[in-house]
Design goal:
mainly alpha, disordered N terminus
Length: about 425
């Protein structure tokens, strides 16, 4: 039976709309599930690394398993984006978590016995991880009212950063009492938490994702994904920002992943610089998430792009033989900056993108930004061998500074919005869409 159009405000926007975000039961359940999925995602390569240390797994085998996981992730992201807009985002999260949860004991069973079996399981685990990303992004917009989404996204990223900071110590402690197979089974249990704990999103009919996408029924996957691409192109700020983000991750992230260990070993002769820089980055990201949970800059898009550009200080700090404290400070600044970008970026997408296409647009975001990162990682080491570390690092730093600056020239990038500055405040507060 036809129903009248529902408002764009979502469950959680009622009388308790001003309560602290983590006291909202619906969001707390979503946050718990997302935190569990983030911990499971981080833990898998770390635990497999422990298997290399105890010689249960070879270094080449580890590379194969991580590559299989990446392939599964990239293959699942666009499919999940379409499914999460066609059907319930909650169900996509459920089945993605169940798939990754089932893959974990298979990884444990194949440990020391069958690398091909482990590779297949790693691909399934990566697919579950990839499927969760756009679904969780869209589900956040269903569970949290527009006025509190920036706080909600900051809380999400805080959980990720805390996990990254304390996770290695916790995993190392557990490894004293449990073997690698048991730790892999534990990762599967985390995925079950991610699958079952989150509650339902918006009521059917509030968004396309919960009640079915608004595209023509029976359309193909490519047609549906193409609709998501067209929606993304309707937002010049999104295209410009995604281009900048992809460039920064492909260069700055590569410098962090490849050049930092080399510089730490060859220039400083110790792993302390590597460990200190990564810890400083995570601590900076925590500080950035806490800051942006409350800060509302006048030009949020340009402030976010300035934060993204701050990643350039990380590769720049590795060019000259400076004191290790300078390197750590540069990585802390990069950490602050990346969250000053991430949180407004996710919040703007949830506000500006048509609700029934949000998962597809989010999948495009993850597909490009994460998808090109392995290419940067693969190319930077040969580039350093061919041209030397300093020129490559300078090029990475320049790209990190220049790409966000170019994106900021797009007029709608000022506020990450197509709306004119004079738009009534009420429309902004309710997240009204086209």
């Amino acid at each position: 039976m036809p129903t009248s159009p529902a408002p764009t405000t979502t469950r959680g926007a009622g009388s308790g709309g001003r309560r602290p975000i983590l006291l909202d039961v619906a969001f707390l359940r979503l946050w718990t599930g997302a935190t569990a999925s983030g911990l499971a995602t981080w833990a898998l390569p770390f635990v497999l690394g422990l298997a290399v240390l105890d010689r249960t797994l070879g270094a080449t085998d580890l590379g194969l398993l991580l590559a299989a996981r990446t392939i599964g992730f990239l293959a699942a992201v666009p499919v999940a984006g379409v499914l999460a807009d066609r059907h319930s985002r909650r169900k996509v999260v459920l089945w993605a978590g169940l798939a990754s949860g089932a893959a974990a004991p298979v990884l444990a069973a194949g440990l020391g016995r069958s690398v091909p079996l482990m590779a297949a399981a790693a691909a399934v685990a990566g697919a579950g991880q990839g499927a969760c990303r756009p679904a969780y992004q869209a589900l956040t917009a269903e569970v949290v009212d527009a006025g509190r989404r920036q706080q909600a996204n900051a809380a999400m990223t805080l959980a990720v950063r805390v996990t990254t900071l304390v996770g290695p110590s916790l995993a190392a402690l557990l490894a004293v009492f449990l073997d690698t197979a048991a730790l892999l089974v534990g990762i599967g249990l985390l995925w079950l938490v991610a699958a079952f704990v989150p509650g339902r999103g918006a009521r059917p009919g509030v968004t396309g994702g919960a009640g079915g996408a608004k595209d023509a029924p029976g359309t193909s996957f490519l047609a549906d994904f193409g609709e998501g691409v067209r929606e993304a192109r309707r937002h010049p700020w999104f295209i410009a920002g995604l281009g900048a983000l992809t460039a920064v991750i492909a260069t700055g992230y590569s410098a962090t992943g490849v050049a930092l260990p080399l510089v730490s070993r060859d220039e400083y002769g110790t792993e302390v610089v590597l460990a200190g820089a990564m810890t400083a980055y995570t601590a900076g990201a925590l500080a950035g998430a806490l800051l942006i949970a409350r800060w509302r800059p006048r030009s949020p898009g340009r402030a976010a792009l300035a934060g993204l550009a701050a990643y350039g200080f990380a590769p720049l700090s590795l060019v000259l033989p400076v004191h290790p404290a300078v390197v750590m400070a540069a990585y802390a600044v990069a950490g602050v900056g990346i969250e000053l970008f991430n949180v407004p970026w996710f919040t703007a997408a949830q506000r500006e993108v048509a609700p029934d296409r949000l998962a597809r647009v989010s999948s495009l975001d993850f597909l490009l930004s994460y998808g090109l990162a392995p290419l940067g990682l693969a190319l930077i080491a040969p580039a350093i061998e061919a041209f030397g570390a300093a020129p490559v690092l300078v090029a990475c730093a320049f790209t990190c500074f220049a790409a966000p600056a170019a994106a900021a020239l797009v007029p709608s990038s000022r506020g990450f919005s197509h709306r004119p500055a004079a738009e009534p405040a009420e429309a902004r507060a309710t997240g009204a869409t086209r």
